[in-house]
Amino acid sequence: MPSQPLLDVRSLVEPDRVHRRAYSDPEIFDLEIKHIFEKTWIYAGHETQVPNPGDYWQFQIGRQPMVMVRGNGDAVHVLYNRCPHRGVQVCGSRHGSGGDALTCPYHAWRFHYDGSLESVPLEKGYRETRFDRANPDFHMKRAARVQRYRGFVFASLDPKGPDLVEWLGDARMAFDDICDRSPVGRVEVVPNCFRVVQRSNWKFFMENQLDAVHPSVTHMSTGYAAADVERKLKRETGSQPLHYHYLSAFATSFDQWDQLETAGYPYGHTLLGGYMGLRPTDADTLEHERVLAAAYGEAKKDEILGRNIHHVLIYPSISVQSPLQQLRAIRPISHDRTMSEIWHFRLVGAPEAIYRRSLWYYNLVNSPSTMINADDLENWQRGQFGLNSDGGDWVSFHRDYGRDRDANGELHSTNGCSELPMRAQFRAWLKYLTETE
Amino acid sequence: MAEPTSVAAATALQTHHEVSQFLFQQSNLLDGKQWQAWIDLFADDGLYWMPPGPEYTTWDGVPSIFIEDRDLMSVRMKRVTHPNAWSQQAEWGTSHVVSNVIVEGTDPASGDLLVRSRFHLLEVRRDDVRHFAGTYQHRLRRVDGALKIVLQRVDMVNGQAAFEYVLQIWV
Ligand code: FES
Ligand SMILES: [Fe+2]
């Protein structure tokens, strides 16, 4: 590997445009893995994925195979899924239970849920050797830091750096918003994870979620098709199910999308504010409002339901749609391949009908039969195709450039279709890649 | 000359033949992209269901890969035939093989036929080949003499693996 790219990387990012190498160069991808993914806070999972001691769920941080394990009581640990004896993967299923100790399938070394060594067979064979059961070299290695915010577990492989809450900053509203919609302030994961591979650089996903210009173009076909059937149902039955609106809303005009707003926070997190009309006055919504008012009082209830959030991105690993309780995590595979993991949540204590809304969105928009993401993934693949080429060097982020308002490091746009989120993400990207002591 | 078969056996053979032809036709309509004709195989209250895993016993209140009634099927059809369905610009085609047809019996309450079969689907999209395989479970109702699908349950053996891209159309 040449040692030049670190300097080079500065020449790739200008305030209003980015060089295509940021997406197409495997060496840049290696730098991203090292200085972003294997350094900053990465989403591990939700604590309810591992309800009982010994439960585990595998996931990836950069190129590292990790496993999130429920310890005794409330503890949640994040370990490298590797046996210190001869390196074998300890937890073999995507998720499961380790029983009373995590046991290596090769020679039966056993580990406590926090990774420390419980026992090795024939321990007398190690007498008067350098083997030492207290030495962490003989434990499953732990992620340097594990912290939780409202049940959402993050891990960092770097012992230094800001704490999770400081790092999240105002973007933690994603988790406050999703949890506060429950009268007891908690969500529970629905234990099903759909996985879909995107044939594009991970940043396509990150940029797309806050790109308010794309929906009415990319999703035109589904928007029209759903609106068509929605009208038919309205004609025939006098009403139309809310989930048709999830699809038809994608065909909303540019003007309407432009009325939303965007913001960029330090560390690359970004927000698209806006509301998909999810506060209707039907009986289910009113019941949910009653439950929230009883738990929090009228004023707080109105504050919770009046929040202006469409989508929040916690850079670089997740996209949260709190009003619909959806979360997508991405795990980059290579510069042109990205794994996405797709989850949804139940608001503990909220009416069942509110869960059903989230479920419809999960099934129609986010499942592998998605009528929405089919066209997103197609466009990102075609984007990767173009950026691999010499047909041009730059990616344009000029829309509404120069009108971003900087308030103590937080960027705010004047309108929803601004390319501010992409500019803000690259501002952070450059910082991650160049502040590499 | 063989002995004349009993009436019951002849009926069973005839049912097996009719059901098999129906299932073959179902997959032919998909391979032929005859979407409306395929949707018309479903009863008015018919459902197409692909659960996330074999352990699922209902779609009610739990996630599904597909859960569509005729109205949602119609959205999907109108979407893929819309001139601006960008993902449809890629050339693609499928070939189904349906086999191992077992008529498992008749639901005593509804009179619906319960049928299990296996499928293998090869898809080519751009230059990529994907395989999907698994089990169909059909609940079929006779409506005005013709068989109609009340429920088509599709369990893909590779439904739990990560999807390379997505499923744009029914399996
Ligand atoms: S490799 Fe794990 S016990 Fe030997
Ligand atoms: Fe999209």
Task: Write a short abstract of this structure.
In chain A, a hairpin with a 4-residue loop joins strand 18 (318-321) and strand 19 (326-334). Chain A has helices spanning 5-8, 21-24, 26-37, 164-168, 173-180, 202-208, 215-218, 220-237, 242-248, 254-258, 283-296, 298-305, 352-366, 373-387, 420-434, and strands spanning 13-14, 17-19, 42-46, 55-61, 64-70, 76-80, 95-97, 102-103, 110-111, 117-119, 145-149, 152-156, 187-189, 194-198, 261-264, 270-273, 311-314, 318-321, 326-334, 337-347, 394-396, 405-407, 410-412.
Structure in words:
The complex is a heterodimer of chains A (437) and B (171). Chain A is an alpha+beta fold and 437 residues long. Chain A is 32% helix and 23% strand. Chain A contains 15 helices and 23 strands. In chain A, strands 13, 14, 15, 16, 17, 18, 19, 20, 22 and 23 form a ten-stranded antiparallel sheet that branches. In chain A, strand 5 and strand 6 form a beta hairpin. In chain A, helix 8 (220-237) packs antiparallel against helix 9, helix 9 (242-248) runs parallel beside helix 13 and helix 11 (283-296) packs across helix 12. The two termini of chain A are 19 Å apart. Chain B contains three helices and seven strands; from the N terminus they run H-H-E-E-H-E-E-E-E-E. Chain B has a six-stranded mixed sheet. The longest helix of chain B is centred in the N-terminal third of the chain and has 25 residues, at 7-31. Chain B starts with 6 loop residues before the first helix and ends in a 7-residue tail after the last strand. The model of chain B has no long low-confidence stretch (mean pLDDT 95). Strand 14 (194-198) of chain A pairs parallel with strand 7 of chain B, so a sheet runs across the interface. The complex binds FE2/S2 (inorganic) cluster and fe (ii) ion (FE2).
